[in-house]
Write a structure and sequence with these properties.
The chain is built from twelve helices and 19 strands. The protein is α/β, with parallel strands linked by helices and about 400 residues long. The protein folds into two domains: about 270 residues, 4-Layer Sandwich (Purple Acid Phosphatase, chain A, domain 2), CATH 3.60.21.10; about 100 residues, no CATH class. The strands form five sheets. A six-stranded mixed sheet has the order 6-5-4-1-15-16. A six-stranded mixed sheet has the order 7-8-9-12-14-13, with no helix packed on it. It has a three-stranded parallel sheet with strand order 17-18-19.
Protein backbone atom coordinates (compact mmCIF):
# COMPACT_ATOMS: atom_id res chain seq x y z
CA UNK A 1 0.00 0.00 0.00
CA UNK A 2 1.03 3.63 -0.49
CA UNK A 3 0.58 6.64 1.73
CA UNK A 4 1.77 10.24 1.96
CA UNK A 5 3.45 11.49 5.11
CA UNK A 6 3.19 15.24 5.72
CA UNK A 7 3.11 17.51 8.76
CA UNK A 8 3.58 21.01 10.14
CA UNK A 9 1.40 22.90 7.68
CA UNK A 10 1.07 25.88 10.07
CA UNK A 11 -1.93 27.27 8.21
CA UNK A 12 -2.45 30.91 9.20
CA UNK A 13 1.26 31.58 9.67
CA UNK A 14 2.42 35.10 8.85
CA UNK A 15 6.00 36.25 8.35
CA UNK A 16 6.98 39.72 9.59
CA UNK A 17 3.27 40.66 9.39
CA UNK A 18 3.07 39.46 5.76
CA UNK A 19 0.14 37.08 5.11
CA UNK A 20 1.12 33.79 3.52
CA UNK A 21 -2.43 32.59 2.90
CA UNK A 22 -2.15 32.45 -0.91
CA UNK A 23 1.20 30.66 -0.65
CA UNK A 24 -0.19 28.13 1.81
CA UNK A 25 -3.19 27.50 -0.44
CA UNK A 26 -0.86 26.86 -3.39
CA UNK A 27 1.29 24.40 -1.43
CA UNK A 28 -1.72 22.50 -0.06
CA UNK A 29 -3.10 22.29 -3.61
CA UNK A 30 0.25 20.80 -4.64
CA UNK A 31 -0.02 18.15 -1.90
CA UNK A 32 -3.57 17.33 -3.04
CA UNK A 33 -2.33 16.96 -6.62
CA UNK A 34 0.40 14.56 -5.49
CA UNK A 35 -2.07 12.46 -3.51
CA UNK A 36 -4.34 12.26 -6.55
CA UNK A 37 -1.56 11.53 -9.06
CA UNK A 38 0.04 8.87 -6.86
CA UNK A 39 -3.34 7.30 -6.04
CA UNK A 40 -2.26 6.86 -2.43
CA UNK A 41 -4.30 4.80 0.01
CA UNK A 42 -3.90 7.31 2.84
CA UNK A 43 -2.56 10.70 3.82
CA UNK A 44 -1.04 10.98 7.31
CA UNK A 45 -0.77 14.53 8.68
CA UNK A 46 1.41 14.44 11.79
CA UNK A 47 0.32 17.60 13.64
CA UNK A 48 0.62 21.39 13.64
CA UNK A 49 -2.07 21.82 11.03
CA UNK A 50 -2.56 25.40 12.27
CA UNK A 51 -0.08 28.05 13.34
CA UNK A 52 -2.07 29.03 16.44
CA UNK A 53 -4.56 27.43 18.82
CA UNK A 54 -7.07 30.13 17.80
CA UNK A 55 -6.90 30.16 13.99
CA UNK A 56 -8.74 32.76 11.94
CA UNK A 57 -11.85 31.89 9.96
CA UNK A 58 -9.78 32.26 6.79
CA UNK A 59 -7.24 29.71 8.05
CA UNK A 60 -9.94 27.28 9.15
CA UNK A 61 -11.69 27.52 5.78
CA UNK A 62 -8.46 26.75 3.93
CA UNK A 63 -7.63 23.79 6.15
CA UNK A 64 -11.09 22.21 6.03
CA UNK A 65 -11.23 22.58 2.26
CA UNK A 66 -7.79 20.96 1.94
CA UNK A 67 -8.77 17.99 4.14
CA UNK A 68 -11.97 17.46 2.17
CA UNK A 69 -10.10 17.70 -1.14
CA UNK A 70 -7.63 15.07 0.05
CA UNK A 71 -10.50 12.81 1.04
CA UNK A 72 -12.10 13.37 -2.38
CA UNK A 73 -9.03 11.72 -3.98
CA UNK A 74 -10.21 8.46 -2.42
CA UNK A 75 -7.45 8.40 0.20
CA UNK A 76 -8.02 7.86 3.88
CA UNK A 77 -7.17 11.11 5.72
CA UNK A 78 -5.80 10.90 9.27
CA UNK A 79 -4.61 14.02 11.12
CA UNK A 80 -3.52 14.65 14.70
CA UNK A 81 -3.03 17.79 16.78
CA UNK A 82 0.44 19.24 17.30
CA UNK A 83 1.69 21.64 19.94
CA UNK A 84 0.45 24.64 17.90
CA UNK A 85 -3.06 23.18 17.61
CA UNK A 86 -5.89 23.22 20.14
CA UNK A 87 -6.44 19.54 20.80
CA UNK A 88 -9.73 20.02 22.63
CA UNK A 89 -11.20 21.85 19.64
CA UNK A 90 -10.02 19.04 17.36
CA UNK A 91 -11.91 16.62 19.60
CA UNK A 92 -15.05 18.76 19.42
CA UNK A 93 -15.02 18.60 15.60
CA UNK A 94 -13.99 14.94 15.50
CA UNK A 95 -17.53 13.50 15.07
CA UNK A 96 -18.31 15.94 12.26
CA UNK A 97 -15.03 15.20 10.50
CA UNK A 98 -15.65 11.48 10.85
CA UNK A 99 -18.93 11.86 8.96
CA UNK A 100 -16.89 13.42 6.13
CA UNK A 101 -14.55 10.41 6.21
CA UNK A 102 -11.70 12.29 7.92
CA UNK A 103 -10.07 11.07 11.14
CA UNK A 104 -9.11 14.12 13.24
CA UNK A 105 -7.68 13.46 16.71
CA UNK A 106 -6.72 16.02 19.32
CA UNK A 107 -5.93 13.92 22.37
CA UNK A 108 -4.33 10.61 23.29
CA UNK A 109 -6.88 7.79 23.36
CA UNK A 110 -7.08 4.14 24.24
CA UNK A 111 -6.80 1.62 21.44
CA UNK A 112 -10.49 0.76 21.76
CA UNK A 113 -11.52 4.44 21.79
CA UNK A 114 -9.87 5.89 18.70
CA UNK A 115 -6.20 5.47 19.55
CA UNK A 116 -5.88 3.02 16.66
CA UNK A 117 -7.28 3.95 13.24
CA UNK A 118 -7.85 0.89 11.06
CA UNK A 119 -8.82 0.73 7.38
CA UNK A 120 -8.44 -1.45 4.31
CA UNK A 121 -6.06 -0.18 1.63
CA UNK A 122 -8.05 0.36 -1.55
CA UNK A 123 -5.13 -0.57 -3.80
CA UNK A 124 -4.16 -3.90 -2.21
CA UNK A 125 -6.93 -4.91 0.17
CA UNK A 126 -4.38 -5.03 3.01
CA UNK A 127 -5.38 -4.17 6.56
CA UNK A 128 -3.68 -1.02 7.87
CA UNK A 129 -3.41 -0.07 11.56
CA UNK A 130 -2.30 3.46 12.46
CA UNK A 131 -1.49 4.13 16.13
CA UNK A 132 -2.03 7.87 16.64
CA UNK A 133 -0.41 10.01 19.33
CA UNK A 134 -1.16 13.77 19.26
CA UNK A 135 1.25 16.11 21.04
CA UNK A 136 1.49 15.58 24.79
CA UNK A 137 3.06 18.17 27.05
CA UNK A 138 4.77 16.91 30.17
CA UNK A 139 1.88 18.36 32.17
CA UNK A 140 -0.71 16.20 30.41
CA UNK A 141 1.34 13.04 29.94
CA UNK A 142 0.27 11.84 33.39
CA UNK A 143 -3.34 12.69 32.61
CA UNK A 144 -3.06 10.64 29.42
CA UNK A 145 -1.60 7.73 31.40
CA UNK A 146 -4.79 7.63 33.44
CA UNK A 147 -6.55 6.43 30.28
CA UNK A 148 -4.62 3.18 30.56
CA UNK A 149 -5.77 2.10 34.02
CA UNK A 150 -8.67 2.45 36.37
CA UNK A 151 -6.52 4.12 39.04
CA UNK A 152 -4.70 7.47 38.68
CA UNK A 153 -1.15 7.10 37.46
CA UNK A 154 1.53 8.02 39.93
CA UNK A 155 3.26 11.33 39.39
CA UNK A 156 6.59 9.60 38.87
CA UNK A 157 8.83 8.52 36.04
CA UNK A 158 10.21 10.56 33.24
CA UNK A 159 8.35 11.91 30.25
CA UNK A 160 10.01 9.44 27.88
CA UNK A 161 8.96 6.48 30.05
CA UNK A 162 5.38 7.76 30.16
CA UNK A 163 5.31 8.02 26.37
CA UNK A 164 6.93 4.60 26.10
CA UNK A 165 4.09 3.14 28.14
CA UNK A 166 1.45 4.92 26.03
CA UNK A 167 3.07 3.74 22.78
CA UNK A 168 3.35 0.19 24.13
CA UNK A 169 -0.38 0.30 24.88
CA UNK A 170 -1.19 1.62 21.40
CA UNK A 171 0.86 -1.15 19.79
CA UNK A 172 -1.44 -3.75 21.37
CA UNK A 173 -3.79 -2.77 18.54
CA UNK A 174 -1.32 -4.03 15.91
CA UNK A 175 -2.37 -7.23 14.15
CA UNK A 176 -0.38 -9.92 12.28
CA UNK A 177 -0.55 -9.78 8.51
CA UNK A 178 -1.29 -6.02 8.51
CA UNK A 179 0.69 -2.87 7.82
CA UNK A 180 1.26 -1.41 11.29
CA UNK A 181 2.12 2.29 11.53
CA UNK A 182 2.68 4.91 14.23
CA UNK A 183 1.98 8.63 13.77
CA UNK A 184 3.08 11.04 16.52
CA UNK A 185 3.94 14.69 17.12
CA UNK A 186 7.01 14.92 19.33
CA UNK A 187 10.78 15.48 19.50
CA UNK A 188 13.19 12.59 19.13
CA UNK A 189 16.47 12.94 21.00
CA UNK A 190 19.34 13.77 18.66
CA UNK A 191 17.14 15.01 15.81
CA UNK A 192 18.04 18.27 14.06
CA UNK A 193 15.84 21.31 14.48
CA UNK A 194 14.41 22.94 11.38
CA UNK A 195 14.77 26.49 12.69
CA UNK A 196 11.20 27.62 13.37
CA UNK A 197 9.98 25.32 16.14
CA UNK A 198 8.89 26.41 19.59
CA UNK A 199 12.03 25.62 21.53
CA UNK A 200 10.31 25.35 24.91
CA UNK A 201 8.15 22.48 23.62
CA UNK A 202 10.94 20.74 21.76
CA UNK A 203 13.85 20.26 24.13
CA UNK A 204 14.89 18.91 27.52
CA UNK A 205 12.03 16.98 29.13
CA UNK A 206 10.03 16.97 25.86
CA UNK A 207 12.54 14.77 24.02
CA UNK A 208 12.26 10.99 23.78
CA UNK A 209 14.67 8.46 22.25
CA UNK A 210 13.74 6.80 18.97
CA UNK A 211 13.84 3.47 20.77
CA UNK A 212 10.44 4.21 22.36
CA UNK A 213 8.77 2.92 19.18
CA UNK A 214 10.33 -0.54 19.35
CA UNK A 215 10.81 -2.80 16.34
CA UNK A 216 7.17 -3.64 15.57
CA UNK A 217 6.02 -0.66 13.44
CA UNK A 218 6.58 -0.86 9.70
CA UNK A 219 7.01 2.95 9.72
CA UNK A 220 6.83 5.83 12.21
CA UNK A 221 5.51 9.13 10.77
CA UNK A 222 6.60 12.06 12.91
CA UNK A 223 5.75 15.74 12.99
CA UNK A 224 7.08 18.70 15.00
CA UNK A 225 10.63 19.23 13.69
CA UNK A 226 10.62 21.09 10.38
CA UNK A 227 13.65 19.50 8.75
CA UNK A 228 13.28 16.32 6.73
CA UNK A 229 15.32 13.54 8.41
CA UNK A 230 15.36 9.93 9.43
CA UNK A 231 16.50 8.66 12.82
CA UNK A 232 18.44 5.50 13.69
CA UNK A 233 16.01 3.13 15.38
CA UNK A 234 14.89 -0.52 15.30
CA UNK A 235 12.17 0.51 12.81
CA UNK A 236 11.97 3.27 10.15
CA UNK A 237 11.46 6.61 11.95
CA UNK A 238 11.05 9.69 9.76
CA UNK A 239 10.31 13.41 9.98
CA UNK A 240 8.97 14.70 6.66
CA UNK A 241 9.61 18.37 7.53
CA UNK A 242 7.40 21.39 6.93
CA UNK A 243 5.95 21.99 3.43
CA UNK A 244 7.09 25.64 3.47
CA UNK A 245 9.86 27.41 5.36
CA UNK A 246 8.05 29.11 8.24
CA UNK A 247 10.90 31.52 9.05
CA UNK A 248 14.30 32.59 7.77
CA UNK A 249 15.93 30.03 10.05
CA UNK A 250 14.51 27.40 7.70
CA UNK A 251 15.56 29.01 4.41
CA UNK A 252 17.99 26.19 3.56
CA UNK A 253 15.52 23.36 4.25
CA UNK A 254 14.09 21.40 1.32
CA UNK A 255 10.29 21.25 1.49
CA UNK A 256 8.72 17.92 0.56
CA UNK A 257 6.24 15.20 1.31
CA UNK A 258 7.22 11.56 1.71
CA UNK A 259 5.66 8.82 -0.40
CA UNK A 260 5.87 5.54 1.50
CA UNK A 261 5.27 2.12 -0.04
CA UNK A 262 5.09 -0.84 2.33
CA UNK A 263 3.47 -4.22 2.74
CA UNK A 264 3.05 -6.55 5.74
CA UNK A 265 6.11 -8.51 4.60
CA UNK A 266 8.37 -5.92 2.94
CA UNK A 267 10.27 -2.96 4.41
CA UNK A 268 9.02 0.58 3.87
CA UNK A 269 10.38 2.27 0.76
CA UNK A 270 10.47 6.06 1.12
CA UNK A 271 10.49 8.48 -1.82
CA UNK A 272 11.01 12.22 -1.29
CA UNK A 273 8.72 14.39 -3.44
CA UNK A 274 9.83 18.06 -3.41
CA UNK A 275 7.24 20.81 -3.07
CA UNK A 276 7.85 23.74 -5.39
CA UNK A 277 4.97 26.18 -4.97
CA UNK A 278 6.15 27.82 -1.76
CA UNK A 279 8.07 31.08 -1.94
CA UNK A 280 11.77 30.90 -1.21
CA UNK A 281 13.19 32.71 1.82
CA UNK A 282 16.62 34.30 1.30
CA UNK A 283 19.11 36.27 3.33
CA UNK A 284 21.07 38.69 1.13
CA UNK A 285 23.95 41.11 1.70
CA UNK A 286 25.12 44.15 -0.24
CA UNK A 287 25.35 47.89 -0.46
CA UNK A 288 22.27 49.85 -1.43
CA UNK A 289 23.47 50.02 -5.04
CA UNK A 290 24.38 46.32 -5.15
CA UNK A 291 21.00 45.25 -3.79
CA UNK A 292 19.15 47.39 -6.30
CA UNK A 293 21.21 45.92 -9.14
CA UNK A 294 20.14 42.41 -8.07
CA UNK A 295 16.42 43.20 -7.73
CA UNK A 296 15.42 41.14 -10.78
CA UNK A 297 17.41 38.18 -9.45
CA UNK A 298 15.38 38.09 -6.24
CA UNK A 299 12.08 37.71 -8.08
CA UNK A 300 9.24 36.77 -5.70
CA UNK A 301 11.53 35.52 -2.92
CA UNK A 302 10.96 36.87 0.57
CA UNK A 303 14.12 38.63 1.70
CA UNK A 304 16.02 39.31 4.89
CA UNK A 305 18.41 42.09 3.91
CA UNK A 306 21.72 43.07 5.52
CA UNK A 307 22.94 46.41 4.15
CA UNK A 308 26.72 46.61 3.83
CA UNK A 309 27.07 50.32 4.56
CA UNK A 310 26.37 52.71 7.45
CA UNK A 311 22.76 53.63 8.12
CA UNK A 312 21.28 56.93 7.01
CA UNK A 313 17.92 58.64 7.03
CA UNK A 314 15.46 57.12 4.55
CA UNK A 315 17.59 54.07 3.76
CA UNK A 316 15.03 51.51 4.91
CA UNK A 317 12.15 53.25 3.15
CA UNK A 318 14.08 53.44 -0.10
CA UNK A 319 14.98 49.76 0.06
CA UNK A 320 11.40 48.73 0.84
CA UNK A 321 10.24 50.66 -2.22
CA UNK A 322 12.85 49.05 -4.46
CA UNK A 323 12.51 45.57 -2.89
CA UNK A 324 8.85 45.15 -1.87
CA UNK A 325 9.48 41.57 -0.71
CA UNK A 326 12.17 42.63 1.77
CA UNK A 327 10.49 41.66 5.03
CA UNK A 328 13.42 42.50 7.29
CA UNK A 329 16.15 45.10 6.70
CA UNK A 330 19.18 45.47 8.95
CA UNK A 331 22.60 47.08 8.83
CA UNK A 332 25.26 44.40 8.41
CA UNK A 333 26.84 43.85 11.86
CA UNK A 334 30.27 44.55 10.35
CA UNK A 335 29.13 48.14 9.87
CA UNK A 336 27.73 48.56 13.37
CA UNK A 337 30.33 49.46 15.95
CA UNK A 338 30.10 47.83 19.33
CA UNK A 339 28.12 49.96 21.74
CA UNK A 340 30.41 51.45 24.33
CA UNK A 341 28.89 53.74 26.88
CA UNK A 342 30.89 55.62 29.49
CA UNK A 343 30.25 54.51 33.02
CA UNK A 344 30.94 58.03 34.26
CA UNK A 345 27.67 59.90 34.80
CA UNK A 346 29.62 63.06 35.37
CA UNK A 347 31.14 62.96 31.91
CA UNK A 348 27.70 62.53 30.29
CA UNK A 349 26.35 65.45 32.29
CA UNK A 350 29.11 67.63 30.85
CA UNK A 351 28.07 66.87 27.26
CA UNK A 352 25.44 68.84 25.41
CA UNK A 353 22.37 67.07 24.00
CA UNK A 354 23.80 67.50 20.51
CA UNK A 355 27.07 65.87 21.57
CA UNK A 356 25.20 62.97 23.17
CA UNK A 357 23.13 62.49 20.03
CA UNK A 358 26.23 62.62 17.84
CA UNK A 359 27.85 59.95 20.03
CA UNK A 360 24.75 57.76 19.70
CA UNK A 361 24.81 58.13 15.90
CA UNK A 362 28.49 57.23 15.86
CA UNK A 363 27.76 54.04 17.83
CA UNK A 364 25.12 53.11 15.27
CA UNK A 365 27.34 54.17 12.35
CA UNK A 366 24.73 56.68 11.22
CA UNK A 367 26.57 59.48 9.41
CA UNK A 368 23.89 61.70 7.97
CA UNK A 369 23.89 65.48 8.16
CA UNK A 370 20.10 65.56 7.66
CA UNK A 371 19.59 63.51 10.81
CA UNK A 372 21.85 65.83 12.82
CA UNK A 373 20.03 68.88 11.47
CA UNK A 374 16.64 67.37 12.30
CA UNK A 375 17.71 66.62 15.86
CA UNK A 376 19.05 70.15 16.27
CA UNK A 377 15.78 71.64 15.01
CA UNK A 378 13.62 69.43 17.23
CA UNK A 379 15.81 70.12 20.25
CA UNK A 380 15.56 73.84 19.60
CA UNK A 381 11.76 73.64 19.32
CA UNK A 382 11.21 71.79 22.59
CA UNK A 383 13.67 73.89 24.58
CA UNK A 384 12.88 77.37 23.24
CA UNK A 385 10.75 79.76 25.29
CA UNK A 386 7.75 79.35 22.98
CA UNK A 387 8.31 75.68 22.16
CA UNK A 388 5.73 72.92 22.77
CA UNK A 389 4.91 72.51 26.43
CA UNK A 390 6.18 75.99 27.28
CA UNK A 391 3.68 78.54 28.57
CA UNK A 392 3.86 82.10 27.25
CA UNK A 393 5.61 84.43 29.65
CA UNK A 394 2.41 86.39 30.40
CA UNK A 395 0.56 83.21 31.32
CA UNK A 396 3.41 82.10 33.51
CA UNK A 397 3.40 85.47 35.33
CA UNK A 398 -0.33 85.31 35.85
CA UNK A 399 -0.07 81.83 37.25
CA UNK A 400 2.71 82.84 39.62
CA UNK A 401 0.48 85.54 41.17
CA UNK A 402 -1.85 82.89 42.51
CA UNK A 403 -5.67 83.04 42.49
CA UNK A 404 -7.42 86.29 43.33
CA UNK A 405 -4.33 88.50 43.21
CA UNK A 406 -4.74 91.70 41.11
CA UNK A 407 -2.53 92.32 38.11
CA UNK A 408 0.14 94.91 38.89
CA UNK A 409 0.05 97.88 36.52
CA UNK A 410 3.36 98.91 34.98
Amino acid sequence: MKFLHTSDWHVGKTLKNRSRHAEQAAVLAEIIDIARDQEVDAVLIAGDLYETAGPSAEAQTLLVQALMALRATGAEVIAIAGNHDHGTTFEAYRPLMRVAGIQLLGQARRVDDGGMVTFTARSTGERVNVAVLPFLSQRYAIKAMQLLSATPAQNAGRYDQQLRDIIDHLKTGFTPGAVNLVMAHLTVTGAAFGGGERQAQSIFEYSVPATVFGAEPHYVALGHLHRRQSLPAPCPVHYCGAPIAVDFGEQDNTSMVLLVEVSPTTPAEVTEIPLTRGRRLRTVYGTFAQLLARADEFGEDYLRVYVSEPGRAGLVEELRTALPNALEIRIDPKFVAATTRSSSAGRMEQQTPQELFDAYCAERTVDDEKVRALFARLHDEVTSADGPGRRPAATASATSRGPGRPRKRQ
